[in-house]
Amino acid sequence: MxxxxxxxxxxxxxxxxxxxxxxxxxxxxxxxxxxxxxxxGDGRVVGCIGMEKYxxxxxxxxxxxxxxxxxxxxxxxxxxxxxxxxxxxxxxxMFLLTTTAEWxxxxxxxxxxxxDEADPRLGASQELRGACPDSAVLMHLRLxx
Length: 145
Fold this sequence. Notes:
- 24% of the residues lie in helices and 30% in strands.
- It has a seven-stranded mixed beta sheet, with helices on both faces.
- The protein contains four helices and seven strands.
- The longest helix is centred in the middle third of the chain and has 15 residues.
- It is an alpha+beta fold and 145 residues long.
């Protein structure tokens, strides 16, 4: 498996993977430069993750792994690589919304917070403007400088 920056020609593959994973595709194209993908030995996209940047605040979004690749460490590799890139990019606070994976992201140190505690700059994200349901849990991770 190889993790790297998503290529422009992979947008449709990423959107398809998000659809298969019941994740929203709204806003993906606008922030595709912040996406990473995991590719198998044949170059097929088997996982993806994205980051929207708002100053020194980031929004982790769209973590998805193909069903036949789950429980193989692909998701973990994607999250760890994205958080590493966030630190290098001077992101100090990382946020995410989830309806099903609060337990998973807590492994990386994310903690649930109230929506009123979100960095106000995240209000520009389609995820917070309705792409994710109101029932989604907002989580936060403070990153080391």
